Amino acid sequence: VTPRTPDIDYAAISPLIALTAGTCIVLLTGLLRAAFVRNHLVPALTVVCLLVVAGLGVWQWGGNTDVISGALRMDDLTLALTMIFAAGGIGATLLAWRGVAPREAGHGEFHALLLACVLGMVILVAAQNLIAVFIGYELLSIPLYVLCATELRRERSLESGLKYLIIGSVGSATLLYGLAFLYGATASTDFSGIAQAIDAKGLSGDVLLLTGIALTVTGLAFKASIAPFHQWTPDVYEGAPTPVTAFMAVATKAAALGVLLRMFDVALIGTATTWAPALATLAVATIVIGNVGALGQSSLKRLLAYSSVAQAGYMLAGVIVTTRLGIAATVFYLFAYLLMNLAAFAVVVVRERETDLGDDIASLHGLGADRPWLAWPMTVAMLSFAGFPLTAGFFGKITLIQSLVDNGYAWLGVVIVLGSALSLAYYLKVIAAVWMRAPGETAGVGAGANAARLTPGGRPVIAGGAPEGEDGTPAAADPGPAPVADANASLRRLRHPEVVFVAIVCTIGTLFFGVFPAPLLDVARDAGAALADLL
Amino acid sequence: MSGDLTIHLSILLYWPAAFAMLGAIAPRRAAPLMALIGALIPLGYGIVLLLDFDAGRSATLQYVTDAQWIPSLGIRYKLGIDGLNLWLVALTTLLFAASALWIAFRPVERPRLFAFHLGVAETAVLGAFLAQDLGLFVGFFDLMLVPFYFLVGQWGGPARVAATLKMVIYTLVGSLLMLAAAVATATLADARPGGGISFVLSDLAGHPLGESAQRWIFVAFALAFLIKMPAFPFHGWMPDAYRNMPLPVLAVFSAVLSKVAAYGFLRIVLPIFPDATVDFQTTLLIIGLLSIVYGSAMAFTTTEIRLVLGYSSVAQLGFILLGIFSLRPEGAQGAVLQMVNHGLVVAPLFFIIALLAERSAGSESIRDMGGIAFRGPVLATVFLIVSLATLAIPGSANFVGEFLILLGLFQSKQAIAIIAFAGVAMASVYMLRAYIRTMHNRTGAGVTSRDLGVRDGLVIVPLVVLILAFAIYPQAALHDGEGGTKAAVRKAQAVAAGKPRPDVAQLPPETSP
């Protein structure tokens, strides 16, 4: 017997290799002393690494190979989601470029954690067995707990990290328990094995299996912030540094929905009749709770958090229909969701830096008159969230509804549009703040009212500990809180080019795919076709 | 890109938006000029289309643009003109041009943004009229709302933000339901020649759905259109929106947007859901009737002159609804004619309101007006002509329109037609009341009477001349429209004739089968 060397498909796992290598390189580069290296080279390397990952994804497109003894599968669904993670990571890196979080936590650490998190997401959505699911889930979660708390001098950030850690751990534990039940019921950890066991043994009504499914749903619902497991979302989103919030909103959501697609539309497809009604109920609850919760919010980050809950409800509908069309709809919606969220968060980041109102909705007042380059991205993002035509969100809704009607869930489509109608109340409130109030209306009232509320949460100027002359640029480019009126008067010139760049690129993307969705639809369709067993 | 591609309708469609964008980056002073060019060229196109249109083939689409757009969703970029939308397209281009001219003479704040939104609005409205694909129609229909949201919210009256929010949410509840219904229609019909999903209207009309699916889809579409019109009892957004909308915007909004909804019934609902149309015929007729009665009653009593017109529009659209749901060619023809008539009278009326308010110290309450005719004979004449046309005095085109509507209605539902006659009389009450209380009577406290200025005359007089010309020769529109409207009602008429009247009180099922 000749010893067999493991047969490794390096090409297929190249995105994983790139991410792992990138994590190490970024971490080590962050140890260098030169300020330029830490402040600019590290984020630049992070962006390059993520670009390489996305590029490798394009290279491997259509490969559909099982890797690592069938534990992972690098198919088009994985790769499409990988591109979303990479784009989300790039967006977050750019938003954080001159932010407080990397400076306080250490640039190397911050960006290495970000990359590790992306690695976890890729493993999670590529997973083909229960063990890989759990590894991916934890690898994604643990760096995020830390990232949430990276603004070390701000109580809210620490609170957010701690909250996320505790609730996330409950989610992990529940998931692990559920996975154990699934294994117990089917005697297999492989998705294909589980699917075969369900068919062969007629397990669809098995108590052990149903318990396992229920616990698994719960565990994953925590990550995807599906109601009623969403309660952490507004608090954590609000407290976390805004770039991290943007990353969580975009990438974590995509990862959680990706693994839901894999588990439910592959492993548990044989028992769809039992879990589909339950998930449909959850989707309806999520849509209602998310949209109603967002109505009264005056903090933009909380508003976007609730909106992300509602959007998770829409996308969950794509999981429920268990067709390729449904998967394609979910993937398309995730792409649209990525673009509009990054645009919105980019504007929030700029306004947090420029005004002393933090992420309050009042920080947007007068934006339309003074800063059209920020006003339009926010406007387009909100219109896209609401599903207006000419934006990617419109076709997101159309594809979702199409997949729902196609498989007899027309009523859920109606729920989605009614939810969207409800959501207009708060999306349009944001647009009204941008365009329909003069900046003067804010300065006195808003600032006064918010000064008290934001005292602990307001963004502090780094004093003492972090030397101001660290490299000169952040301190100069990032002035301390200034009265709104002054800020508006003096900030007409481009102040945060990389953040505004993110906002504008995402806006152009939203509009482009709102007019020519065909290329993105093709990508989504390929991703849907990756799950061969579906209709 | 494949298939037929004549470029003309696309130029007409995108010209206003393109110039709006140019205007947005042009120097501030050039913005009104850009807006004017952006509106006048489409007007030229509209006139050429009227002259060039082949009325003999009124029922077939002409100048068709048909190209692949989103193959995987089955949505095509298909535009076309037939007898149904020809005059409505021309009306749209005319009224937007009038509005742009008005703005060119009376500078607004932030003119570039204003012109931008107005241009986008024109493109969206034209798109909704021209679209021959359900997906495209729904897109433009929803898109129409966006510029008006901004126009009201930024340039409106004191309660503008609340009013615009109310308007958008009200109308979008309907529109979004329509979106779901439209996708459901295409998915369930599976109508692409050779299999697959198609949103093209002609494909959908050839593959009727089952009756139960038709019903809930019909309800969603009807709701969207009735809210947009607005018809009683879906008009809740109207008073606030009308109060706060800037007048040049209100002129196009009231004249054109409500017509898109009425047109939607003829273009989409009647041909694609004929069975459900017949099932719900009586319900819709009653809604039309209630709109007439309620709109007229409110128009008698309100003292805000904008709302007199707002409620009169509710009543007028009630008539149009009656004409459409008479399911007779005469009624539908009358409805299309009446859409054009109403647009043609209501736009100058709103411009006149602006002039009246200027003469009564900014007040728009008819209590503060009176005696404005004293030194303004031309203004008084113009206003009188438009008022008489609005109340459909014999000899006006509006009279012909209402006559045809009632004729059609008599053939299908006599009882409703008899009640509807009362509506004709009520129109004269509220219009004459508004005219007398503003132009005659005792001179109001703050009123300074002066005549129509040259610039204002340039906007209003051409419209009045057109009203007169149309009164003399309404045949022009009727002739062009005949084939198109006949084709629109043919199926529903056949269904109505072919089967016993079903019970209309049945509620639609919540979901598809």
Rg of chain A: 22 Å
What's the order of the H and E elements of chain B? HHEEHHHHHHHHHHHHHHHHHH
| Strand order within the widest beta sheet of chain A | 1-2
Query: Helix segment count of chain B?
Result: 20
Catalogue the unreliable spans of chain A. 442-491
Strand tally of chain A is 2
List keywords for this structure.
heterodimer; A: 535 residues; globular; B: 513 residues; 2 strands
What does this structure look like?
Chain A is an all-alpha fold and about 525 residues long. In chain A, about 75% of the residues lie in helices and about 0% in strands. In chain A, a hairpin with a 4-residue loop joins strand 1 and strand 2. Chain B is mostly helical. Chain B contains 20 helices and two strands. In chain B, strands 1-2 form a two-stranded antiparallel sheet. In chain B, a hairpin with a 4-residue loop joins strand 1 (about 60-70) and strand 2 (about 75-80). In chain B, helix 1 (about 10-25) runs antiparallel to helix 4 (about 110-130), helix 10 packs across helix 14 (about 305-325) and helix 15 packs antiparallel against helix 19 (about 455-470). The interface between A and B is large, with 41 and 38 residues.
